[in-house]
TrEMBL record:
GO terms for molecular function: metal ion binding; tRNA-guanosine(34) queuine transglycosylase activity. It comes from Candidatus Taylorbacteria bacterium RIFCSPHIGHO2_02_FULL_45_35. The keyword Flavoprotein does not apply. It comes from the Bacteria. It catalyses: 7-aminomethyl-7-carbaguanine + guanosine(34) in tRNA = 7-aminomethyl-7-carbaguanosine(34) in tRNA + guanine. Substrate binds at D94, S95, G96, G97, F98, D187, Q248, G275. This is Queuine tRNA-ribosyltransferase. The gene is tgt.
């Protein structure tokens, strides 16, 4: 029996987009859905009640960070990720690969720098890392921290310089201990500026790692079969887990198609789409992949969460999206509105007694003014992070829920057009 059930409720005419329901043992995710990022088993500055009130249905945590702190065995002893953080809904973990690379080889190759060709997905994903990194004085970004071999990635801890090895098997073992409902295969993330030859090599390695991730996942599931509940709990966190394969391939259409074809051929429960995208053709790049991926399985676009990108991703067949951007922007005083982003530190907002967005029903907009938020940020008050995060998270989750509703009602194209017009005005 599969750990998840995915049902398509309605398709978008002429496009690959769809609205569906993803059932996990911790509840249903109505798709398309924004996946809230709780990197270290916490959504920065927010309580579980505030996350739930923002409309979140699913939380994604980071394997790499939980491996170092508090360690996967503690999360497992607590009953798994959800129980540990007090969240009773669906959870996900990424494979930890991206961080192992970003803090070493990928960083050396330029991940995290702005690509001349546009804003890359890696850049968005690594921004939060660099943010994490900058808090730790022991980090020396100039030193090579990661080495890639056929076996996996060996890297130095960003905490104390000790050496660690992540292999596909190790990543799956850790993710089984953490016990999220949906976990990801271990892949190599290449820099957006890597050569074509290197991208090809990395792609082939990622394919071999996909098979190894799946094999390890199946072995662990097999050993859980026929065991008593208590025995299963002692080995995993007691949650039936779904494994998503990852489609890579950078900017080269042929590589993306090849990766999608290979990953589709393996019995994964769903798919993650990774790699870097040009901002201007993100929709086309996703379309190449989703034309190939089996329609009946869910698709998660990794690290994308800007409002306009979400419309493109949904239209071209993605069901789930995770991104640190909404909450990271919030902590940096940048707030979403239906008229585009605003920086609350701008002088004009000091005396603005209207809510951040008049159409938003979040706790912040219902109770506070722009002037109050501007004051909190200028005074460097802790509450600024909480109120701003509540707003941005509610905004982005509500937007995706609205997109879902528009697909169901047959008004997607009109909604997209109206939103773009206002947001870019
Ligand atoms: Zn609001």
């Amino acid at each position: 029996m599969s750990a998840i059930t995915f049902t398509i409720e309605k398709r978008l005419p002429k496009f690959l987009g769809r609205a569906g329901r993803l059932e996990t043992s911790h509840g249903v995710i109505e798709t398309p859905a924004f996946v809230t990022v709780g990197t270290k088993a916490t959504v920065k500055a927010l309580t579980i009640e505030q996350i739930r009130d923002a409309g979140a249905e699913v939380v994604l945590a980071n394997t790499y960070h939980l491996y170092f702190e508090p360690g996967e065995k503690i999360v497992k002893a607590a009953g798994g990720l959800g129980a540990f953080m007090g969240w009773n809904g669906p959870t996900m973990t990424d494979s930890g690969g991206f961080q192992a690379f970003s803090l070493g080889a990928a960083f050396e190759k330029g991940v995290g720098k702005i690509s001349k060709r546009g804003i890359s997905q890696e850049e968005k994903r690594s921004e939060s890392l660099i943010e994490e990194r900058s808090r730790d004085i022991s980090i020396r970004p100039e030193s090579p921290l990661a080495t890639i071999t056929e076996d996996g990635v060996s890297f130095k801890s960003y905490k104390d310089g000790s050496t660690h090895l992540f292999t596909p098997e190790r990543s799956i073992d850790i993710q089984h201990d953490i016990g999220a409902d949906i976990i990801f295969a271990f892949d190599e993330c290449t820099s957006p500026d890597a050569s074509e030859a290197y991208q090809k090599e990395a792609l082939e390695r990622t394919n071999r790692w996909a098979k190894r991730s799946l094999k390890r996942h199946q072995e662990l599931q097999e050993s859980e079969r026929g065991s008593t509940f208590r025995e299963i709990q002692s080995r995993t966190s007691g949650t039936p887990q779904a494994l998503f394969g990852i489609v890579q391939g950078g900017r080269v259409p042929e590589f993306r198609r090849r990766s999608a074809t290979f990953t589709s051929s393996l019995p994964f429960d769903g798919f993650g789409i990774g790699g870097s995208f040009d901002k201007k053709d993100i929709g086309t790049a996703i379309e190449w992949v989703n034309e190939i991926l089996p329609e009946e399985k869910p698709r998660h676009l990794l690290g994308i969460g800007e409002p306009l990108d979400l419309f493109e991703a949904v239209q071209n067949g993605c069901d789930l999206f995770d991104c640190v951007t909404p909450t990271r922007l919030a902590r940096n005083a940048s707030l979403y509105t239906t008229q585009g982003k605003i920086n609350i530190l701008n002088a004009e907002f000091r005396s603005d007694l209207s809510p951040v967005d008049g159409t938003c029903r979040c706790y912040t907009c219902l109770n506070y003014t722009k002037a109050y938020l501007a004051h909190l940020f200028r005074s460097k008050e802790l509450l600024s992070n909480t109120l701003a995060s509540i707003h941005n998270l509610t905004f982005i989750i509500s937007l995706v829920k609205g997109i879902r509703q528009a697909i169901l009602e047959g008004t997607f194209s009109k909604m997209k057009e109206d939103f773009e017009k206002r947001y870019l005005s």
